[in-house]
Specification:
14 strands; 6-stranded mixed β-sheet
Length: 354
Amino acid sequence: MGDAPEILVRFDQVHKSFRTSRGRRQVALDGFSMSIPRGAVVGLLGPNGSGKTTALKTLLGLVRPDRGTITAFGRGLPADQRFVARRMGALIEGPAFTGSLTGEHNLRLLGELHGADRSEIADALSLVGLDGAARRSYSGYSLGMKQRLGVAAALLSQPDLLVLDEPMNGLDPEAVRHMRELLKRLRDERGMTVVVSSHILSEVELVSDWVTIVRNGRVICDASVPELLSQGTSRLVVRVHDAVTAQSVLAGHGYTAVPATGPAGPELQVAPPVSGPKGPNAPDAPDDSQDPDDSQDTDGPDTADGSEVLKLLTDRAVYPRELLVESASLEDIYVAAVRAADAAAAQQESRHGS
């Protein structure tokens, strides 16, 4: 994001646990630390039960943390919760409206609480694309329309910060596209800061400027999307009819070729040799007497050389249908971060066990 962004909300070592029906303590947040930059769409990622919703509820004042600090708009929470609440809108755990009333009537009832007049209600409905369905009964709304009406309700207070918990959950592709475009408009046209809790990684990547990944109540990644993607490793993808032979040829020259099923059929994800090509056709090893400072780095490039891979395959009469370089996706970053966190946790557990 270029220069360091202005932080609107900051969680610092927040802890929260609940007592279960059996009297045990269940940890929901375990040293949770997160930053929310002003004017950004922030994707809060993590599996169910990771602590995402609990973290959002502590920000909204619905749950009181056991310890740790939360600051928003320069104020400390929960001490200044009333001041902060006036600047936030939220949709947590799905919308709840009266089914027999129209979408507009439901919003009018909520508008009385926020002091919103008819023009502001009409503006909210138009913004979420429900102006044409405003006078239809809520019970006849699709799931996507219900979610958008929930967002419209959250917008009635004209918030600076909008908090949405799983707004795309269960939506069809068209409804997801509508929601994605809405979030971008709120950021670009209204200057809102938007926090979106989700597990749909591809959608978060398309809409988010900043991503926070949560695992077992802890934040394991908190950075801008461009920064995260720049840390990922690109890979060469080879689409070929005879993947078995292609894999054998490349393995004979030191390449790691992992079979996969892509959108166009069988493919290989090819990683470069760690220490240069191997096999019968590999170049001679460097002279051991050479000065170490003059030798080339043997770590190899991050991405396999497509022209070299193509030559190796065609020399053996294996003709790829396509070669392309795929950049790392947010899903790649997410999986790597979760695996690293799980490995660190397992290592710590084994130390304590021994």
